[in-house]
Amino acid sequence: MSKIVVLGAGIAGHVAASHLRRKLSKEHEVVVVSPNSNYQWIPSNIWVGIGRMKPKDILFPLAPLYKKKQIDYKQAKAISFHPEGDNNEPRPYVLAEYVDGDEKGTTEKVTYDYLINATGPKLNFEGTEGLSPGKNKAHSVCTYTHAQEAWIALEGLIKQMKEGKKIKILIGTGHAKSTCQGAAFEYILNVEQELRRHKVRDMAEITWISNEYHLGDFGMDGMLMSYGSNIMKSNEMVEMIFEDRGINWILGAAVNKVEDGLVHYENLDGDHKQKTYDFAMLIPAFSGHGFKAYNKEGADITDKLFRGFMIVDADYTPKPYEEWSVQDWPETYQNPSYPNIFAPGIAFAPPHSISKPRKSKNGTDITPAPPRTGMPSGITAKLVADNIIDMIKHSSNKMHHKGSMGNMGAACIASAGFGMTKGSGVSITTFPIVPDYNKYPDTQGRKLGKTFGTIGLAGHWLKLALHYAFIYKAKMKPFWWLIPE
Ligand SMILES: Cc1cc2nc3c(=O)[nH]c(=O)nc-3n(C[C@H](O)[C@H](O)[C@H](O)COP(=O)(O)OP(=O)(O)OC[C@H]3O[C@@H](n4cnc5c(N)ncnc54)[C@H](O)[C@@H]3O)c2cc1C
After folding, report:
1. Ligand 1 pocket residue status of 141, Cβ below 6 Å
2. What distance, in Å, lies between the first and last C-alpha atoms of the chain?
3. How far apart are CA 415 and CA 428, in angstroms?
4. How many CB atoms lie within 10 A of CB 107?
């Protein structure tokens, strides 16, 4: 009998727990430890942030589902890792603190045979002075509560615009090293469309602010892609979209301070600038959760498990940008020091940035961090679950299931406006996510044909279809496993 503990019930944790439970007999325990009582389909936060969906449309409570599926669920947060146990507990464990109910505030040593750390990122709002969702007129759409607050603020401004007030909207990244430009890009298009729907578009100045060097970098160094029968660079496509919609842009910007209606940033020329706004949505930097790890004797071994995010089978040797390679990226998400610990989804430490690192003239690093989107999070979680199942069923330590972001694609489908006939979508599909310059030397490391962009209603339909399909799948309804990650 084995006990598998999954930390986090986001895309990666939930996918791992669902597959483990389906494929392992009930003599094996599957335990999920996660602080949020709900599963949320994060990509649809964008629609909550423009008031076109309610939080209830994109979430469901985890406890009843896990009870029905015989997954043990602890509404708690992991605090520290003890991969060798301690003097009183011979088994490895994670110290978890309950966050709700009668047990709130109490801790438990949650022992395991296998551990999946799927805790995703810490939304590091504190990394930028004054950037706190809902404060200073600056918002976030990273959680459904943030997204709802963003909509309440925006809705209020739409009313004021209808009464004749001109306003300024600023959307993008809120830190020199933020990632998730794709989400901000989707949000700016949706906001622009929503203002049109309310017939107040002419009352708003809309500006994109980003740490990207080129528009459409998305933390992936941009891409060369097929666009209809043409070949286009992602910056050309995004430029075209922004120009078409009258959206201004500020690039290479390290936002370092947010005040009420005023953003301070440094640009690559080393200039310190400011931008006023009435409504902002700025994505914070993502960081690890700051977990600590201890060995059996209680000595600090955090650096065996973490370098910000969790250490896995990547090559972390420091190298100049030109020497980084697609082979540096992990394939099994297994910790090298403790082979029974894995970190799929966003929880693993990436070996390097994908976008070319750049510094301002003052030496400030201004580089988008690598994106880790939903599809790879699901795929890596499933392959980790499958390797653990093999280890349990065949007592083998061989990792048969592998998947690197160097041979995985990502689809960024940015809906731009809601409704079956009124919506539209900008779909950018990239393969592979981490460019492979040896395999695809003439096309900037990506496979053309599998890397493409489209604009039109079909993208919007696809995004809606994915919303319903993934919520169906997450609810583990009949034959859910047939829907791919
Ligand atoms: C607004 C927005 C839109 C996006 N749109 C898209 C999109 O269109 N397409 C796409 O592919 N990707 C999209 N993404 C990215 C996608 O949401 C992420 O890649 C994905 O959610 C990562 O999954 P994860 O499970 O690794 O992390 P998360 O989904 O962040 O899950 C982490 C889990 O860990 C839990 N947790 C946190 N701390 C602890 C702790 N101490 N102990 C235990 N559990 C803990 C959390 O409560 C959560 O359940 C978007 C992201 C955002 C923010």
Report:
1. yes
2. 28
3. 11
4. 13
Q: Is 75 in the pocket of ligand 1 (CB under 6 A)?
A: no
Measured CA to CA, the distance from residue 315 to residue 191 in angstroms comes to 40
User: What is the sign, positive or negative, of the torsion defined by CA atoms of 126, 128, 130, 136?
Assistant: negative
Residue 472, Cβ neighbours under 10 Å: how many? 14
Q: Which of 485, 428, 431 is nearest to 456 (CA)?
A: 428
Q: Which helix (H) or strand (E) holds 58?
A: helix 55-58
Cβ–Cβ contacts within 10 Å for residue 271, how many?
11
Predicted local distance difference test score (pLDDT) of residue 411: 79
The yes-or-no verdict on residue 71 having pLDDT over 90 is yes
SS3 278: coil
Burial of 105 by CB count in 10 Å (0-12 exposed, 13-18 middle, 19+ buried)? Answer: exposed
pLDDT in tens, 355-414: 999 999 999 999 999 988 888 999 999 999 999 999 999 887 889 999 999 999 887 777
CB of 115 within 6 A of ligand 1: the answer is no
Q: Is the CB of 288 under 6 A from ligand 1?
A: no
Tell if the pTM clears 0.90, that is, is over it: yes
- The sheet that has 3-7: what strands, in order across it? 72-74, 29-33, 3-7, 114-117, 341-342
DSSP state of 409: -
Tokens linked to 81: 């890792």
User: Which element (helix H / strand E) includes 224?
Assistant: strand 224-227
**Average pLDDT, integer, range 85-109:** 97
Taking each helix axis from N to C end, the angle separating 144-162 and 181-197, rounded to the nearest 10 degrees, works out to 30
pLDDT at residue 421, as a whole number: 58
Residue ranges with strand state E in 346-465:
410-415, 425-430, 452-456
Residue 419's pLDDT band (cuts 50, 70, 90): low
The CA-atom distances, in angstroms, between 342 and each of 115, 165, 255, 349, 472 are 6, 53, 34, 12, 26
**DSSP for 282-350?**
EEPEEE----EEB-TTS-B-HHHHEESEE--SS------GGG--GGGS-SS-B-SS-TTEE--GGGBPP
CA of 321 to the centre of ligand 1 (A): 28
Tens of pLDDT along 187-210?
Answer: 999 999 999 999 999 999 999 999
Question: How far is the CA of 482 from the CAs of 21, 476, 477, in angstroms?
Answer: 15, 11, 11
Work out which ligand 1 atom sits closest to the CA atom of 43.
5
Which single residue is written with the structure tokens 């494929």? Answer: 23
Rounded Cα–Cα distance for residues 169 and 279 (Å):
5
